[in-house]
Amino acid sequence: MELTRLTEAQVQARRIYNALGEVESLSRQVAEALDRNDPMAVKVLLAMREEPILAAHHARDILRQMVESTDDGGRLRALLNGAAAENADERGLANQIAMNERLLAQIRELDRVLSQKIARDKSFYETAK
User: Fold this and answer.
1) Predicted confidence band at 129 (pLDDT cuts at 50, 70, 90)?
2) 128 SS3 class
3) Does residue 106 sit in helix, strand or coil?
4) What is the band of 126 on the pLDDT scale with cuts at 50, 70, 90?
5) Spatial separation of the C-alpha atoms in residues 26 and 45, rounded to whole Å
6) What is the Cα–Cα distance from 52 to 75, expressed in whole angstroms?
7) Are 125 and 116 within 8 A, CB to CB?
8) Which pLDDT tens digit goes with each residue over 26-81?
9) What local confidence, expressed as pLDDT, does residue 128 receive?
10) Number of independent structural domains in the chain
11) Number of other residues whose CB lies within 10 A of the CB of residue 82
12) Which residue segment(s) compose the domain that 11 sits in?
């Protein structure tokens, strides 16, 4: 795969990571506002999470377009889905994807806790069981 394509994919993956970092930070602030029993802050912070979530979706859409528009899209798709790097050129992207997945797992767990605190038995995580 071309180094320029790998580099562009890594840039988009890094944008996703940065956006996820913002989501995590705002989610932690939501947890703190819940602990303070500050419903207005909770509402504002939850609304603020929308922008970085949309930014991550936008970067993901760019990655999807890259996969669809290249001859070696299968290899790029594999890397984006967590496949190990086969050479030094792929290592940066593979490492970034692994970092994104770890951060996303942390956000999912935090979101589960927040959802259960806010919605209790009506939480998405309770109704999805």
Assistant:
1) low
2) coil
3) helix
4) confident
5) 6
6) 28
7) yes
8) 999 999 999 999 999 999 999 999 999 999 999 999 999 999 998 878 999 999 99
9) 62
10) 1
11) 11
12) 3-127
The length of the chain is 129
Tokens 């290899």 belong to residue? 75
Q: How does DSSP classify residue 85?
A: P
Token duo for residue 7? 């580099």
- pLDDT for the residue 86: 95
**Of 80, 32, 25, residue with least CA distance to 51:** 25
Pull the structure tokens for residue 1.
Answer: 């795969």
pTM of the model: 0.91
If 0-12 CB within 10 Å is exposed, 13-18 middle and 19+ buried, where does residue 85 land? Answer: middle
Distances (CA, A) of 106 to 26, 50, 103, 109, 111: 13, 18, 5, 5, 9
Q: Which residues contact 93 (CB under 8 A, 6 or more apart)?
A: 6, 9, 10, 13, 79, 80, 85
Reference 119, options 5, 41, 51, 128; nearest CA is: 128
User: How far, in Å, CA of 4 to CA of 86, rounded?
Assistant: 16
- What's the CA angle centered on 101, arms 46 and 44, to 5 degrees? 5
